[in-house]
Amino acid sequence: MDAISALTGHLSNAIASALGDEWRDADPVIRPANKKQTSADVQVNAAMALAKKVGKNPREVASAIVEALRADDEVMALVDDVEIAGPGFLNITLSTDWVAAQASTILADGSLGVAPAAKTEIIPIDYSSPNVAKEMHVGHLRTTVVGDSLARVLERLGHTVIRQNHVGDWGTPFGMLIEHLLEVGEDSPEAALLESDPNAFYQAARTKFDTAEKAEPAGSKGDFNTRARKRVTLLQGGDPETLAHWNKLMERSKAYFNKVYGLLGVTLTDADLAGESTYNDELAGICDDLESRGIAVVSDGALCIFQDEFTGRDDAPVPLIIRKSDGGYGYATTDLATVRHRSFDLQGDRMVYVVGAPQNLHFRMTWAAADKAGYIRPESTPIHVQIGSVLGKDGKMFKTRSGDSVLLMDLLGEAVDRAAGVVSESKAEMSDEERAVVARQVGIGAVKYADLSVSHDSEYIFDFDRMLALTGNTGPYLQYAATRIRSILARAAEAGYSPAAEITLGEDAERALALKLLDYGAVVAAVGESLEPHRLAGYLFELATTFTAFYEKCPVLKADDDDVRASRLALCELTLGVLVDGLSLLGIETPEKM
Ligand code: ARG
Question: Motif 'HIGH' region: which residue numbers (predicted)?
Answer without folding.
Answer: 130-140
